[in-house]
Design brief:
The complex is a heterodimer of chains A (272) and B (590).
Chain A: H1 6-21, H2 26-43, H3 51-69, H4 73-88, H5 93-116, E1 135-138, E2 141-144, H6 155-158, H7 160-177, H8 179-182, H9 214-223, H10 248-262
Antiparallel strand pairs in A: 1-2
Helix pairs in contact in A: 1-2, 2-3, 7-10, 9-10
Chain B: H1 3-29, H2 35-48, H3 50-53, H4 92-101, H5 116-127, H6 153-165, H7 169-172, H8 211-220, H9 236-249, E1 260-265, H10 275-283, E2 288-291, E3 293-294, E4 309-316, E5 320-328, H11 363-369, H12 377-381, H13 385-398, E6 412-418, E7 442-448, E8 453-459, E9 465-467, E10 474-480, E11 483-491, E12 505-513, E13 525-526, E14 530-534, H14 543-578
Parallel strand pairs in B: 1-4, 1-14
Antiparallel strand pairs in B: 2-4, 3-13, 4-5, 5-11, 6-7, 6-12, 7-8, 8-9, 10-11, 12-13, 12-14
Helix pairs in contact in B: 2-5, 6-9, 8-9
The chains are: A mainly alpha (272), B alpha+beta (590).
């Protein structure tokens, strides 16, 4: 669900719940937050985040945790107090010795794993929904992206029969052109999806179609990968510029169909 | 009653009982569901199935002209994947299995989102398309699938003998790469071209990759296809040995697609003409398999590329770098033409009907074949592609003579590199993966396998591909039992293109053209951008960095312990000096 690896996310949340219930110490919370975020970035997503991006996220996390811990004299004192006790009190001597051995061991293992781990291709972040232009010209027709809507959407209430015809035409267009990548059920898992990077959009996702205006979807359909700004890494996207293959009506129809199939409505104008 | 008649009566009774027992399960199997269930199934079907299988179940949906293998025509009552004997109808569980998990590397996906009840309803609805399901005679008891035999050397050897005796290789090829002599001519009973499975790529088996799946296919056959049942011709045990042999041909359970080739360093010279040394050189280089999919972004789309993956390796020495790629193709097409920018007419996007009989649509062949095979222009530009391709396949294929000559288009392969590496401030920048773009061109190392030599092209987009001679790229190629191997070599430094420095990640993409599938120009199988990493020539020691990491952490720890303790001591001394006392419960202040 939502591209998350639910068992991991739930397990992390459960540990957090236990800590809250036991009123854990500040230091424990800090360690938990750091560890849980690491685990979340590393294992929490169905499609793994590239290691380089995880490293950036973790850097930010550590910075945030350090600044939290040192935000006041009292909090800092409270945070380091267990560490001081560990170092000073004789009854923790054994634990201290263990830690003195364990941490360098961990660092050594980490260095070893780094050196011997199978290489992976460099990964780069990309904007999934890059900012659209203010105007869009498709087949000599220019629309204002902020105010344009799917011209057939209103038939849903005004003329259901005509609406059904447009949806059916969209269905034809979709299954003649789109499902190889976006999938029969629109899960972004078509028979070619495994060979593409970035992966095709998942239209079942509640965070995708409902969050977008139909004009945005029209822009993505008409101009495809090559029409994206650099932030969307247009050179990697296999999304065709459908204006090369389809009429404007066909593009609006398939736009209508993918919303209808999933039972979603486009984000309304001016809604944020 | 005499003894004689008594015996006869008893015999008759036995027969009757036997017949009853035999008939019972068959009768029990006829389960067409209730009207409500079928109506509920229709709702699911219309939403999820009709686009391919057709709203009337005839296998003629919107997607049909552009998918291969073709969607099942439910009106025929012919089903490939069954546990029931050859020619029989599938059980509900057989249908459920395919609906749940799909058929890999076809356009039939699994439907994990459907509930068990929804699947059952849709099964009832699907069965209503064919009256065969009302006929008890068409039902058979599911076969028994025994536990697989242990895969001993003897078992595999026996399986191999069976494989040869039964002539499996005539379709599947001698070593199982789907390249048997008759592979190019295979059609199903609707006349649609069909491919023999590549037994080495188990993950693409339509009926499933397990030993039980393979045994089932041997024992029940695939109805409507040239794959027969061996239930009558092979003992159970021989089928089990055959399973072990076929399994042993496989390249693992899954394709393990990678994203990176590691180019390894060698002191040896790279000589493309010295086959033995070259093979030895590549022996040490790790092999990565990359997924290929149809080019469906630019006009000249390829909706059903038969080649679904390519394996690649790389080695380099002081001056040169060599790449080796390998992929499976059911036939070497080495007489036609091909190049990256050959035009593909719009109608030919759908026209991947598989045989070179379709060649006659090309101008060159038009005259040679006579009008009969040449489709009239009207067909192509008729109201929709469906009509043409729906029945066109038979005609085309019927006149195919795959053995007689080569295809119009030859097999080909290309490596693609950016013409220059991304600038440091935008490391993510690459040329468009489809032949580059105006700002960021690509270089193609293209080998038309008719000639087997490398031609270099500079691509600035699909409509701007020019030959270039800035760098000399050499290539050798070979085709052996269904596998193409092409080895490239170039100097590491380039005057006009990308240079391969040590410890550099260089973007790389692949294209493969199957001439048999009429692939040329933009109609090809391709990959997204991947990388080749030129491994450092000097092996990095592991002990040093590991020890350093441990020592640094230890030093920091000791420092912290020392500082904390010194501070505590100082504090105690200060307090003693000032005469204050530390009460037991009080924590030491910072």
């Amino acid at each position: 669900m939502w591209g998350l690896n639910l068992p991991i996310v739930l397990a992390l949340a459960a540990i957090g719940g236990v800590l809250a219930w036991r009123r854990a110490h500040t230091l424990v919370w800090l360690l938990y937050t750091g560890g849980a975020l690491w685990a979340f970035f590393r294992f929490g997503f169905a499609v793994p985040i590239p290691q380089s991006v995880v490293t950036i996220y973790l850097g930010i996390t550590v910075l945030a945790l350090v600044s939290y811990a040192s935000s006041s004299r009292e909090r800092l004192a409270e945070t380091v107090q267990p560490i001081q006790r560990l170092i000073l009190e004789p009854r923790y001597r054994l634990a201290l010795a263990g830690l003195l051995v364990a941490l360098p061991g961990l660092a050594a293992y980490n260095a070893y794993a780094d050196l011997t781990m199978p290489l992976e291709a460099p990964g780069f972040g990309r904007e999934i929904h890059p900012p659209p232009p203010t105007e869009l010209t498709v087949h000599d027709e220019t629309i204002d992206m902020a105010t344009a809507e799917n011209p057939y959407l209103h038939y849903k209430h005004d003329d259901p029969e005509l609406y059904g015809k447009h949806v059916e035409n969209g269905r034809r267009v979709y299954y003649e052109n789109c499902f190889w990548c976006h999938g029969d059920g629109m899960g972004g898992d078509g028979m070619f999806a495994h060979g593409l990077n970035p992966v095709p959009s998942n239209f079942n996702d509640v965070g995708t179609l409902p969050a977008l205006q139909s004009s945005f979807v029209h822009w993505r359909i008409a101009k495809g990968g090559p029409g994206m700004p650099a932030g969307g890494t247009p050179w990697d996207s296999a999304m065709p510029a459908w204006e090369k293959f389809l009429t404007t009506e066909e593009m609006w129809d398939v736009n209508l169909f993918i919303y209808d199939f999933n039972g979603y409505e486009p984000r309304a104008l001016g809604q944020h | 009653m005499t003894a004689h008649t008594m015996r006869r009566t008893r015999t008759a009774a036995t027969f009757a009982t036997a017949a009853l027992i035999l008939a019972l399960p068959a009768v029990a199997q006829v389960d067409l569901g209730t009207e409500e269930q079928r109506a509920a199934g229709k709702v699911v079907y219309d939403k999820y199935c009709g686009q391919c299988h057709g709203d009337t179940g005839d296998g003629n949906g919107y997607a049909t002209p552009r998918v291969k293998p073709k969607p099942r025509d439910f009106t025929t009552g012919t089903y490939k994947f069954r546990t029931t004997p050859n020619g029989m109808l599938p059980t509900d569980d057989d249908l459920r299995r395919i609906i749940e998990i799909g058929a890999p590397y076809t356009s039939m996906p699994g439907w994990p989102n459907l509930t068990s009840a929804e699947i059952q309803n849709v099964i009832y609805y699907i069965k209503s398309f064919s009256s065969d399901f009302e006929n008890p005679d068409r039902y058979g008891e599911p076969i028994e699938i025994p536990r697989p035999l242990e895969s001993t050397e003897e078992s595999v050897a026996r399986g191999r003998v069976v494989y040869e005796e039964q002539g499996c290789g005539s379709c599947h090829g001698e070593v199982g790469r789907g390249d048997g002599a008759s592979a190019p001519t295979l059609v199903n009973d609707k006349g649609d071209p069909i491919r023999a499975a590549d037994l080495t790529q188990r993950w693409t088996y339509r009926g499933g990759p397990t030993k039980e799946d393979i045994y089932r296919t041997f024992s029940t056959g695939l109805n409507g296809t040239p794959m027969p049942s061996y239930a009558d011709s092979l003992e159970v045990e021989d089928r089990q040995h055959l399973v072990n042999y076929v399994y042993s041909l496989g390249d693992g359970d899954d394709p393990n697609y990678g994203t990176l080739i590691t180019a390894v360093y060698s002191e040896e010279p790279i000589d493309l003409q010295d086959e033995e040394t070259l093979d030895a050189l590549f022996e040490s280089a790790p092999m990565t398999r990359f997924p290929l999919v149809g080019q469906i972004t630019e006009p000249g789309r390829n909706f059903f590329p038969p080649v679904t993956s390519i394996e690649a390796q790389a080695v380099y020495n002081r001056d040169e770098i060599a790449f080796r790629v390998r992929w499976h193709d059911l036939r070497a097409d080495t007489s036609g033409r091909n190049n990256p920018s050959l035009e593909v007419p719009m109608w030919d996007e759908d026209n991947g009907i598989g045989g070179d009989a379709a060649d006659d649509s090309g101008d060159d062949f038009f005259g040679d074949f006579g009008g009969e095979e040449a489709p009239a222009e009207d067909d192509f530009f008729g109201d929709s592609g469906d009509d043409f391709f729906g029945d066109g396949g038979d005609d085309f294929f019927g006149t195919a003579d795959a053995g007689a000559g080569g295809a119009e288009f030859s097999d080909a392969v290309a490596l693609q590199f950016p013409a220059s590496l991304a600038p440091e401030e935008t490391p993510e920048l690459k040329p468009y993966f489809l032949y580059g773009d105006a700002q960021n061109p690509v270089d193609l190392w293209f080998v038309n396998l008719t000639y087997g030599v490398a031609d270099t092209f500079r691509g600035r987009g699909s409509d701007s591909i020019e030959p270039t001679e800035a760098d000399v790229v050499e290539a050798v190629s070979s085709y052996d039992q269904g596998a193409w191997t092409v080895t490239y070599k170039r100097r590491r430094s380039s005057r006009a293109g990308v240079s391969f420095a040590e410890e550099q990640y260089t973007p790389l993409a692949f294209s493969v053209w199957d001439g048999f599938n009429r692939e040329r120009g933009n109609k090809r199988a391709l990959s997204s951008w991947f990388y080749v990493y030129t491994e450092p020539s000097v092996e990095q020691a592991v002990a040093g960095p590991v020890l350093r990491a441990a020592l640094i952490v230890l030093a920091i720890e000791l420092l912290v312990v020392f500082l904390v303790r010194r501070r505590a001591r100082q504090k105690a001394a200060d307090e003693e000096a000032s005469g204050a006392t530390l009460t037991a419960g009080e924590a030491p202040a910072v």
